[in-house]
Amino acid sequence: MSQLYNIFILEFPFLPQDDWNGKWFPNPPSNVDGSNGIKHGSQEIKEGRMPMGVISNNCDDGKTNLTVDWDDSPIDYTCFQQRSLYRPKIDVQPIEIVYNIPTEYTALHKCMDTPITYDYSIPTFGTHRPLWPKYGEYVFVPVQRWLHNLEHGALVMLYHPCADTRETQYLKNIVRNCLYRHIITPYASLTEERPLALVTWGHSLEMSKVDIVTVVNFIATNTLRGPEATPRDGQYDYKLLKPAKVVSNQEDSNVCPIRSSK
Predict the structure, then answer these.
(1) pLDDT, position 100
(2) d(Cα 224, Cα 201) in Å, to the nearest integer?
(3) Distance, CA of 153 to CA of 151 (rounded, Å)
(4) H or E stretch including 44?
(5) Is 10:123 a contact under the CB 8 Å cutoff?
(6) Among residues 76, 72, 70, which one has the least CA distance to residue 112?
(7) pLDDT tens across 137-188, in order?
(8) Could you tell me the CA-to-CA distances from 2 to 157, 171, 207, 209 in Å, in that order?
(9) Largest separation between any pair of C-alpha atoms in the chain
(10) Dist. CA 202–CA 156, nearest whole Å
(11) 147/200 Cα distance (integer angstroms)
(12) What pTM, to 2 d.p., does this model score?
């Protein structure tokens, strides 16, 4: 029997409706990020974004200026608190947050000379880097990278470094056996109450304890629904621990064909 859980469906509250021109949400048309033909380094950004997946020494080669997004700090993947605070709690219900993203919305690509910040603890859409991470498990991969994977319909699993080891491993096994297009990374911004999370384009599921029915239903319902549905692997592989294995096929035509068990 699956857990009961709360679902919050959020409309875009970021701008008054009159300020959104149907494309450059959440930036208004007057914002520089939404302009056409911006010069960025020696390349021209057409329609506000660099081409995806193009390795560029002037913009993003997946190796240069990486400290703009992450300074290699162990705080992002090491538990420095009491693990007992993050133990699974059976009485804490999962929370799913859904953003109704307009189909016309196009996320911006920013080069590595420009920092990217987010207003939410778990971003599920937004500006990101042109190169996306190769699928698999990482020591740590910054949100500025994995947001691009979400745009391609992928699933990202997040876990707090202090999360229960058994629950974390259980969730990893489910994710690995559900689809090829996945990223697994620690994420210290998760809470003590819900130190585990799954993220897809416009959706997040935060939980204290793993319930396989709830998890598989979330994955089957919300993956492969990004605005740029491509199975192509990424170009960024810094701190990659374990490349993803193909489950059904690289297109993930059969999501979650095998259910994991504890």
Answers:
(1) 87
(2) 9
(3) 6
(4) strand 43-45
(5) no
(6) 70
(7) 999 999 999 999 999 999 999 999 999 999 999 999 999 999 999 999 999 9
(8) 19, 15, 13, 12
(9) 56
(10) 12
(11) 9
(12) 0.84
Task: Give the pair of three-digit tokens for residue 223.
Answer: 């993956």
Find the angle CA(11)-CA(148)-CA(186) to the nearest 5 degrees. Answer: 95
Sign of the alpha-carbon dihedral angle for 243, 249, 254, 260: negative
For 125-167, the DSSP string reads: SS-B-SS-BPSEEES---HHHHHHHHHTT-EEEEE-TTS-HHH
Q: How far apart are CA 134 and CA 176, in angstroms?
A: 14
Count of beta carbons in the 10 Å neighbourhood of residue 47? 13
For 233-262, give one letter per residue: b (16+ CB within 10 A) or e. bbbbbbbbeeebeebeeeebeebbeeebee
